[in-house]
Amino acid sequence: MIEVFFYNNLYTYLFVSLFLLCCGILGVLYRRTLIGMLVSIELIMNGAGLNLVAFNRFSSQDNPYGMIFTLFIMGIAAAEAAITLGIIILIFRKYKHIEGGEIKEMKD
Amino acid sequence: MNFAEIVFVLIMFITLTGALMAVLSGSIIYAMIGLVTTMFGIAGLYIYLNAPFLAMMQILIYVGAISILITFAIMLVGPLYKRPKEWTTLTKFFVSLIVSLFSFFVLLKIIMRAFLSGGRIDAFAISTKDIGRAFFDKLTLPFELISLLIVVSIIGAIMLTLFSKGEK
Fold it and tell me: With an 8 Å Cβ cutoff, is B88 touching chain A?
């Protein structure tokens, strides 16, 4: 019998990324401030990247596209964090708080 | 159980603990520290997945850039001691816990079914050289587009915060 190590198994990584996804969903739903929601969204993106790299390692022949997509995810996460923090600072200037549930009018 | 496996279990434990800390802690700066812990753990998992270049980029981009950015935003939005706790009402917490656990068990059932039906999957080794080749042979245009996207978003964030009329 060939011994399969714990770290040489696809499903371990899938479980870790699933756990990150569910933590992110929980955080997005119940966090009070917008920055807490942003942290949770970063958790979800990291779970997606880990998933892609794990599938690339275990079930792709010899092309590195999963890793390249993870690099793209990192770039898009950086851009998203920059633009989101700009918006959060604007909201703080206007409303004096950053609570997601309290921002009711977005018109003027 | 050899040494590599012990280190792997330790890294996995660090990752999961950091994720729980990022979600459940009451203060936002502790959530930030939990996020940084998770990033380091995921970099360790990338090394176990035979992708050291990705681990390096993870530490550079997430721990070096994004977490510092979020920390600056935390410091810019008012003093810490005046802020209310992160806890919302208990009902909201339980409702979101139910939603999260529901999606967790649905996806876990799919993973377990694949695990029980499928056999052993072989691992393929991909080097950093292959990543560079693919970047500059086939995926040159998306690579340049990503850099353009980052520049546009940074300029957009600066313009938003500089030239908007808020109540100062």
Answer: yes
With an 8 Å Cβ cutoff, are A71 and B54 in contact?
A: yes
Contact B157, A85 (CB under 8 A): yes
pLDDT tens readout for residues B54-83: 999 999 999 988 999 889 888 888 666 666
CB distance B39 to B59 below 8 Å: yes
pTM of the entire predicted model: 0.87
Separation CA A55–CA A57 (nearest Å): 5
Whose tokens are 């390096």? That residue is B56
Return the domain boundaries, chain B. Answer: 1-84
> Which class would CATH give B1-84?
mainly alpha
**Chain B residues touching A2 at Cβ < 8 A:** 120
**C-alpha dihedral over B50, B126, A22, B16, to 10 degrees?**
0
Residue B154 at interface with chain A, using a CB cutoff of 8 Å: yes
Using a CB–CB cutoff of 8 Å, tell me whether B105 touches chain A.
no
- Note the ipTM here: 0.87
* Burial classification of residue B167, based on how many CB atoms lie within 10 Å of its CB (0-12 exposed, 13-18 middle, 19 or more buried): exposed
For residue B19, give the nearest of A20, A76, A89 by CB distance: A20
